[in-house]
Amino acid sequence: MLIEELAKMIQKSKHLVVFTGAGISTSCGIPDFRGPKGIWTLQREGKDLPKASLPFHRAMPSMTHMALVELERAGILKFVISQNVDGLHLRSGIPREKLSELHGDSFMEMCPSCGAEYLRDFEVETIGLKETSRKCSNAKCGAKLKDTVLDWEDALPPKEIDPAEKHCKIADLVLCLGTSLQITPACNLPLKCLRGGGKIVIVNLQKTPKDKKADVVIHGFVDKVVAGVMETLNMQIPPYVRIDLFQIILNQSLSRDERYINWTLRVASVHGLTSQLPFIGSVEVSFSDNHNFKDAVLDEQPFIIKRRTTETETFDIFLKINYSEGCDCLSTKITIPFKYEVSTEEHEEETIDKEAVLQSLREKAVEESSCGQSGVVERRFVSEPRSETIVYATVTNLRTFHCQQSVLANGDLRWKMEGSGTTSRKRSRTGKRKPRA
């Protein structure tokens, strides 16, 4: 059986490289181009393009994405080359140093001066390597950032194509998943393994121009093939846990007559005060019983509430963060104690092990099979004017994967796949974006 043959090839490989196209993201709700329901196929047939049921920024990695993560963690997969701009390989957990995103990433900005990269939770507003509205946060730099998505006339960036070529040349197996292998020059990368004796395997629904160069060709759904490979290798596909960040900023200042404390509370993006929070729909604000402030519902961004109190008053501010469409959990509740204090330190920062908090949230989400867990990953204080910033991490999506092998009457194997969690869909790629394979 071809799936078992592919599993053996992967098991024996010393330097496995995976080359991916739009076909690995169709099960995430993101349409491909040349498939039966692909954008170009439907346009050619005069049919309506698929409508997105959920926003692009809430798309979650597929079974295939997460299987690649497990292969990388096991030391089998050495490098991933992607033609997609959906950013799902990075979100799934593939290390950046083991990934080439040939055509860019819709959620990535880069600094042309110092080379810093910024992965956003919103889709960057431009394409074609143009300047965006944000600047590099490096204090020694501050240059204007650019998007990373190529337009048709843009050449593949050396930062992405050079390591891709290097790994293809030394690969003993290049596995092509969900790609028509028709967009040049990217489609020629897998062929570079042949000179060194490497082999090519192609898994795609339709035939490709490179099929004759491959040792194994499987025409089928990528998720089903990969599920069979992982089962044959006796490897578990890890769950996907999405964690989003937001910050709560509480500013306090004395009134001119020094009788009151004017305070402002803001729920904001960690990517800057002017950036949108795409995963938060509204914020409900209430207060402890010992205070007579009126409750408020903030349903438009920016989420800001302003109040005044006396210098000696203490109370609790209760926030209910309501998440937007595409999040598996409905809301998170947070309590902010309010007390005006004069600090002797100009700047204070609480030491928090951010990675430990994030790992704990992931483990709890998987153990409890639910979302909504949250924790503080950063806390900063400024004395004048008094300001406290708390960065929260919250689990907004959880997706688990299961595959089951069964034998048909003719002796063939069938794979039953199950995935739990919300599947997000991308809006059709028309208008400002030109589609890429």
Question: Could you please describe the fold and organization of this structure?
Answer:
Helices cover 16% and strands 34% of the residues. With 437 residues, it is an alpha+beta fold. The model is unreliable at 406-415 and 422-437 (pLDDT under 50).
Strand content range: 25-35%
| CA(first)-CA(last) distance | 29 Å
Structural class: alpha+beta
Provide a count of the helices: 7
Got a strand count? Answer: 21
Order of helices and strands: HEHHEHEEEEEHEEEHEEEEEEEEHEEE
The main sheet comes to:
7 strands, antiparallel
- Indicate the low-confidence ranges by residue numbers: 406-415, 422-437
Overall geometry comes to: elongated
Helix content: 10-25%
What's the pLDDT, averaged over the residues? Answer: 87
Output the radius of gyration: 25 Å
Pfam family, one: SIR2
Protein name: protein acetyllysine N-acetyltransferase
Keywords: Metal-binding, NAD, Transferase, Zinc
Family: Belongs to the sirtuin family. Class IV subfamily.
